[in-house]
Design a protein that fits this description.
Layout (H helix, E strand, L loop, with lengths): L7 H27 L6 H32 L10 H20 L2 H28 L6 H24 L7 H33 L6 H23 L3 H28 L6 H26 L11 H36 L3 H16 L2 H21 L8 H30 L9
Length: about 425
């Protein structure tokens, strides 16, 4: 692992550590909710912001530091370590968690300003690199630009909520805050990265760059229509925006799956996670449209409570975002460690091959347990339509889902630690 704080790999691994801690808290929240002993409300907010700010946002920062310079062909002139940026994003996450624990929204709001400052820095740095580069800005960079723009608007909504500047529109601003950050920032950043990352993992060209260009315009447009629906309290406009998002996600998924089908790749933990995550993205967006349709009638067709919201949101948070992160780490960590620890390309092969083989161990168990654990949350929520929470069926589904999710996370974490502790001299004879 990097010895210097603030290297891209440090952001990625620290962000993943935040995600693991947040996941354990999330499982505790689920157990408390199902067993009728819910944890304090602030813990849920702390859990969400620890996962999204300390975890996902920090990892996206690491990804931007990793990918932007090579995309613009300016990597050799850039610093490798960014300790101040590292301290800022982690301090912001700690501040938000502490703010929720202390019920102090001023602390939360100030922490949000530091998150904005972190991404303003990366935006400014990218702009300066783009001006110096002889390479035209690639398609991925436009995805990142739109993602960061959505983040700034989403964070502005968050600051409005934290400081109570528009209490009369609290519900609408909250919906805009959530969807701009999840769909606008995180999803667009992932989509932009995946158009390069999956072809790299598969060692095959992207099936259709034209479809990628269509998605870059269609997805943000659908998000804009969705946010308009929120602000106008119009479920029909929301559904129109959701329909555009579903269509763009289908184009995106078709492009990636066609790339996979045309490749000769035998499969790996990285490709398995990335392809499964793509499926969950489409599924989550389809479910979102159905949730909106359920709310059109004066009386919802199907009751929609806390557990149903947990199941729906975690299709995205675990099925799409976490699986994408695990797929990206499965590829990036071995490659990054091999490049850092073995300077000679001629001698790097055996070490990289060994690290990759470690990451690919038990990959079927790892991917399947996460998928079944995520779908188990949906089963758990659907059971409550017919039986009470105290039912052994509900309790059994809860413990099964928790066990499956923990299994997948544990297997991956153990392999990740093993890879980090494996030095080149330990595989010299392999």
């Amino acid at each position: 692992m990097s010895r210097l704080p603030g290297r891209p790999l440090t952001f990625l691994l620290t962000g993943f550590s935040w995600l693991m801690l947040a996941s354990l808290v999330g499982l505790a929240i689920l157990v408390g909710l199902v067993r009728g002993t819910p944890l304090p409300h602030w813990i849920r907010h702390a859990h969400v912001h620890a996962a999204l700010v300390g975890g996902v946002a920090q990892m996206i920062l690491g990804a931007l530091l990793t990918f932007i310079a090579p995309l613009l062909l300016t990597g050799r002139t850039q610093r490798e370590s960014h300790p101040l940026l590292f301290v800022t994003i982690n301090g912001s996450a700690v501040g938000m968690v502490a703010g929720f624990g202390l019920h102090n929204y001023t602390v939360i709001g100030i922490s949000g300003f530091f998150v904005i400052a972190s991404f303003l820095w990366i935006a400014r740095d990218t702009w300066l690199q783009a001006r110096q580069s002889l390479n035209a800005p690639p398609l991925n960079l436009w995805y990142y630009a739109l993602a960061v723009l959505a983040l700034f608007v989403g964070l502005a909504c968050g600051e409005t909520l934290a400081f109570g500047w528009a209490q009369q529109s609290f519900g609408y601003i909250r919906l805009a805050h959530i969807h701009l950050n999840l769909l606008g920032f995180i999803t667009l950043a992932i989509v932009g990265t995946m158009h390069n990352l999956l072809p790299t993992v598969l060692n095959a060209p992207l099936s259709s760059p034209r479809l990628a260009r269509i998605v870059i315009w269609l997805f943000p447009l659908g998000l804009a229509v969705l946010i308009t629906g929120f602000m106008n309290s119009s479920v029909l406009i929301e559904m129109a925006g959701g329909g555009m998002l579903v269509f763009s996600a289908l184009l995106y998924a078709a492009n990636l799956f066609t790339t996979w089908l045309r490749s000769t790749h035998q499969g790996s933990a990285a490709s398995d996670h990335l392809l499964v995550a793509t499926f969950f993205l489409v599924l989550t967006l389809v479910l979102g449209v159905l949730v909106a349709a359920n709310n059109i009638a004066a009386t919802p067709i199907m009751p929609f409570g806390s557990l149903h919201l947990v199941a729906y949101t975690h299709m995205a948070l675990i099925g799409f975002i976490l699986q994408t992160i695990m797929g990206a780490l499965s590829h990036l960590v071995p490659v990054t460690l091999a490049v850092r620890r073995v300077p000679s390309p001629k001698k790097r092969g055996p070490y990289l091959e060994h690290l990759t083989s470690v990451i690919n161990r038990w990959r079927t168990v790892q991917v399947a347990s996460l998928c079944m654990g995520t779908m188990g949350l949906a089963l758990l929520a659907s059971l409550t339509w017919n039986v009470p929470l105290s039912s052994p069926y509900v309790q059994g589904a809860m413990w099964a889902s928790c066990g499956l999710l923990l299994t997948g996370l544990t297997v991956f974490s153990v392999k990740l630690v093993t890879v980090l502790w494996t030095e080149p001299d330990q595989t010299a004879g392999a």
